[in-house]
Amino acid sequence: MQLARKSLQFSQLPLQDIVIGDAGEAVKLTLDLKPLRRVSWPYRLLGCAVMTLCLVLCLNGRSPQAQALNIEAGSWTGASFPVENFQAYTSPFGFRNSPTGGRGYEFHSGLDIAAPEGSYIRSWWGGTLVEVINDQGCGVGLVIESGDWEHIYCHLAGQVQTIQGRPTLVDRRGGIQVSQGQAIPSAARIGRVGMSGRTTGPHLHWGLRYGDRWVDPALVLRAMHRDR
Ligand SMILES: [Zn+2]
């Protein structure tokens, strides 16, 4: 897996241009712990709670703007639009009302791209297939790792089977079989639009993660369009 990470075509993307603004900025926590030695348990617990809260606030306090990736500065000529037979963007990245009515307000971690059932899905970038998903939300899905990026594809057609000990997406009608650990070239057909998981119609849910953060795929698509 490590080898595959190194051999990615990802060198095409000038990573030095991707700047996580204030991520490296030192956060000073000045807490005088001496009085804690003499205080009773309720106060100790209160102290711990305050420290935890401080840590949480410090970690979360870094705003999305400060952390924003410099997507505009990247070179995206090696990227592929992730689905054939594009119809429409049906749900953007960000907070939204639940499309299935469930819990109401929720965070939508990707971009929904409608396409007729059976349309081929293409890998956005070359990388390694690190996870074959089979759950209630995503349904049948794939996670591809490309350097510090992960791209996620949900609601695919086909089934997940274990072949030679490796989770594998098998879509016989589409002529697709991809196994966990496999290298995937950019723009390779990796699956087809299906109806698996939590979905109200055929579409690709496409997610992008950089490091441990979700990135709005629309920003990347805009930069890709610019570089065409
Ligand atoms: Zn979605």
Identify the notable features of this structure and list them briefly.
228 residues; alpha+beta; Glucose Permease (Domain IIA); 2 domains; 8-stranded antiparallel sheet; 3-stranded antiparallel sheet; 4 helices; 15 strands; globular; disordered N terminus; binds zinc ion
Give structural notes.
It is globular, with a radius of gyration of 21 Å. It folds into 2 domains: 34-61, no CATH class; 88-226, Glucose Permease (Domain IIA) (Distorted Sandwich), CATH 2.70.70.10. By secondary structure, it is α+β, with helices and mostly antiparallel strands. It contains 4 helices and 15 strands. Zinc ion (ZN) is lined by residues 91, 108, 110, 112, 205.
Rg (CA only): 21 Å
The CATH topology annotation of the largest domain reads as Glucose Permease (Domain IIA)
Largest sheet: 8 strands, antiparallel
CATH class wording of the largest domain: Mainly Beta
What number of structural domains do the residues give? 2
Helix content: 10-25%
Point out poorly predicted stretches. Answer: 1-39, 54-67
Determine the strand fraction and express it as a percent band: 25-35%
The mean pLDDT is 78
Structural class: alpha+beta
How large is the count of helical segments? 4
Query: What is the count of β-strands?
Result: 15
State the CATH superfamily name of the largest domain. Answer: Glucose Permease (Domain IIA)
* CATH architecture descriptor of the largest domain: Distorted Sandwich
3D shape: globular
Order of helices and strands: HHHEEEEEEEEEEEEEEEH
Q: What is the terminal separation in angstroms?
A: 31 Å
Small molecules bound:
zinc ion
